[in-house]
Amino acid sequence: MRKVCVVGAGRWGMNHIKTLYNMSALGGIVESNSETLESLKITYPDVACYSNPHNALNDNFDGFTVATPAPTHFTIAKQIIEAGNHILIEKPITLKSAEAEILADLAKEKNVNLMVGHVLLFHPAFSKIKSLLDDGSLGDLQYMYSNRLNLGTIRTEENVFWSFAPHDIALFQYFTNSFPNKISSRGVDILQDGIHDTTITTLEYPDRIMGHIFVSWLHPFKEHRFVIVGSKGMIRYEDSAEGKPLIFYDKSVEWKENIPSPRSGPTQSIEYDSAMPLTEELKYFVAHLDDSPITICDPQSAIDVMRILESATESLKGEY
Q: How far is Cα 240 from Cα 242, in angstroms, rounded to an integer?
C-alpha cells in the first residue's frame, strides 16, 4: 500500500490523518505544535511523526497532503515539489494566482502530480449532477446558482467570498468546462470595514451560460442550495435540508407558434452514493501516486479558481 505524509494536524488536517489511516495509507504526520505532535505519537504509534516538512522529505513517502494555514501553502508546497513528491494541497492552493502558476510549472518540470483539495468535486451528489449533464439528461446547461448562507464563523482575515465561495467556483468550472467571460461582484461590509459579510457574484460563461453565487455569514438560517437549469430539465441539491435531497424536475420551456410555453413533467428524487467526499478525494489522490495524470482538481482548475477569486475581489473594490 502506498504511504502518504500529512503536513498539518489542525482541524482539517486531522480529517486527512484519520481518513488516510482508515485507508491504511497514512505513513507520516508533520505538525509544528509539540504538544499536538506528542499526542499524535501516542494515538498513531506506527506512524512517523515530524516537527517540520524538511525532515519528512528525507523519508521515502509516495505523496504528501498539505493542510496547513493558507498563507503557508506556497512555501511548503514548493519545498515538497522541488524534492520530487506528488502533492495534494488543501484549498486555496495559494493566496495568489501567480504563486499557483509557479507551483503548477514546477510540478510539470519535476514530473509530479499536483492536486488541489476542492473536495465537493468528489461529493456523490455533485458527481451525479455531472453525469446527468454529460449524458444529456438535462439538455444544454443554461443557468446555475449556489446559495451558501449561515450565521456562522466570521473571519477577520478574509471576506465571506474567499471563505465560502471557492468550492462553488470549482463546481461551476467543473460543470461548464470553461472560464467566465465576465465576473461581477457586489456586497456589503457591515461588521468590519473592507471585509464583506455578504456578496452576490455573477459569472457569465461562453454559450450564454450564467451563474451566480450568493454567500453570507450574516444570515438568519442555514441554507446550502445548488440549482442547475438545463434546456431539458432542472435539478436541485439541498445540502442543508434533512436527508440532503437531490431533486430532478422534468421542466422546460417549449416554443409553440413563436410563443414560449412552460412544460412541467414529474418531479423525482435522484439516488446517489453515500460515500464521504474526503474519502473519495484521498482515494483518487492515492490512486494517482503511480504517475498517472490528475484530471479532477488539477493545477489548471486550481489556477482558474484563484483567478476568479481575484477578479471578483477587484469587482468588489470597484463598488466604492
A: 7
Query: Contact, 285 vs 85, CB < 8 A?
Result: no
Q: What cell does 247 get?
A: 431533486
Beta-strand relationship, 209-216 and 141-149: parallel
Indicate whether 319 pLDDT > 80. Answer: no
* Residues 6 or more apart whose Cβ sits within 8 Å of residue 169: 213, 305, 308, 309
Residues 239 and 195 in one domain: yes
Question: Does 134 lie in the same domain as 104?
Answer: no
- Give helix 97-110 / helix 299-317 axis angle, nearest 10°: 170
Can you tell me the distance from the alpha carbon of 87 to that of 102, in angstroms, rounded to the nearest whole number? 14
Tell me the C-alpha distance between 26 and 313, whole Å: 38
For 316, the grid coordinates are 468588489
Phi, psi (rounded to 5 degrees) for 134: -70, -35
Contact 210, 233 (CB under 8 A): no
- The residue range of the domain holding 213 is 121-277+308-317
The cell numbers describing 34, all together, are 509539540
Residue 290, in any domain of the structure: no
Its pTM stands at: 0.92
Strand order in the sheet with 4-7: 48-50, 26-30, 4-7, 63-66, 86-90, 114-117
Residues in the chain: 320
DSSP assigned state of 206:
G
Query: End-to-end distance of the chain based on CA atoms, in angstroms?
Result: 55
Q: Residue 166 corresponds to which cell in the numbers above?
A: 471557492
Query: Residues 197-242: pLDDT tens digits?
Result: 999 999 999 999 999 999 999 999 999 999 999 999 999 999 999 9
How far, in Å, CA of 266 to CA of 268, rounded?
7
Asked whether 149 and 163 are in contact (CB, 8 A), the reply is no
